[in-house]
Amino acid sequence: MGLSQEQMRETVDEYLRRVGLGDADAVVELMADEVSVEDPVGGPPGTHVVGRAEVREFFAKGFANAKPTPQRTGPVRATAGDEAAVPFHLTLTLAGEEKALDVIDVISFDEEGRIRSLRAFWSYADLR
């Protein structure tokens, strides 16, 4: 039997908490070795990274450049399978200016409850 919906919800909430702390090492602890992150989906080169080392570097750079602060705007919706989606509001500080973005992350999990893939749905045109 796979993960429970509650386990997926807890991991998603913990992921958002760690993003808010700006701790790339803590974020990567939640991920599988061959994790795939697309942030945003369909984004320019460098926004789709694979493997914990690349994902750690991606998050560390993002945390240093943008100081993201996520806040859930709706419930985590978990499937009967191994995936969950979460809507959240993201506040960023870019070049000293505060920006906002609404995001939906779709996350899949491995058998051990680690994040196997994370796909972030947002567009640069949505920054405000």
User: Major sheet: size, sense and barrel closure?
Assistant: 7 strands, mixed
How large is the count of helical segments? 3
- What is the distance, rounded to the nearest whole angstrom, between the alpha carbons of the first and last residues? 43 Å
What is the molecular shape?
A: globular
Structural class, judged by helices and strands?
Answer: alpha+beta
DSSP summary, beta strand count: 7
List low-confidence stretches: none
CATH architecture, by name, is: Roll
Order of helices and strands: HHEEHEEEEE
Number of domains: 1
CATH class: Alpha Beta
Beta-strand portion reads 35-45%
Helix content: 25-40%
Return the CATH topology: Nuclear Transport Factor 2, Chain: A
**Arithmetic mean of pLDDT:** 95
Q: Any idea what the radius of gyration is? A: 14 Å
In words, what does this structure look like?
The protein is α+β, with helices and mostly antiparallel strands and 128 residues long. It has one domain: Nuclear Transport Factor 2, Chain: A (Roll), CATH 3.10.450. It is 29% helix and 38% strand. The protein has helices spanning 5-21, 24-28, 52-66; strands spanning 31-38, 48-50, 69-72, 77-78, 83-94, 97-109, 115-121. Strands 1, 2, 3, 4, 5, 6 and 7 form a seven-stranded mixed sheet that branches. The protein is globular. It starts with a helix and ends in a 7-residue tail after the last strand.
